[in-house]
Amino acid sequence: MKIIAFVGMPASGKSEASRIAAEMGIPVIIMGDVIRKEVLKRGLEPSDSNTGMVANDLRKHEGMDAVARRCISQIRETGSELVVVDGVRGIAEVECFRKEFGKGFILISIYAPIEVRFSRIQKRGRSDDMNSIEGLRQRDERELSWGMGEAIDASNVEIENNFTLETFRKDVIEVLSNYLGSGKGNNL
Fold first, then answer.
1. Are 4 and 84 in contact (CB under 8 A)?
2. pLDDT tens readout for residues 32-71
């Protein structure tokens, strides 16, 4: 089993890369859905502050790899030989996945500058998005406190997402195609 996980700062392009993977026929597990589900379970509004508070709380009480551990059963339940995981947030999650999947775990970092990321946030309109570049900086700091920088440094491959969507799409397809092996799941 191969697991390809995307890591990157908020709005760097992880969700777009995951959409591309899904279009290629690769099952996608979204780590942020674990947090959003927990926010709703606790009866909270899905705002950035509540999402961040719940993410911190899970990590504090269950360990820094709490979200990754909750995703492992979902990954196995796909029954697929290749699965994409959207949204690694820290080195503990990388270590958890590497322990579980060994050499079958591949980490891809996605990079975009903060100004580009904030412009994207203003367009996407998710309920947990921040409404100022300072809010984005604070979210960056929160995620860096979880070991995001170390996770990015541990990646096998980096994709820069500072150009057009078409360029990014081509780059993601090229990288994912390198890991498709026999072509399973490739619906291009």
1. yes
2. 999 999 999 999 999 888 998 999 999 999 999 999 999 9
Give this prediction's pTM: 0.90
Cβ burial, residue 22 (10 Å; 0-12/13-18/19+): middle
Whether the CB-CB separation of 24 and 188 falls below 8 Å is answered with yes
Q: Give the span between the Cα atoms of 85 and 29, in whole angstroms.
A: 5
Q: Indicate the SS3 state at residue 79.
A: coil
Q: Cβ neighbours of residue 180 under 8 Å, at least 6 residues apart?
A: 24, 82, 186
Token pair listed for 81:
């030989």
29 with 14: CB under 8 angstroms?
A: no
CA distance 61 to 183: 41
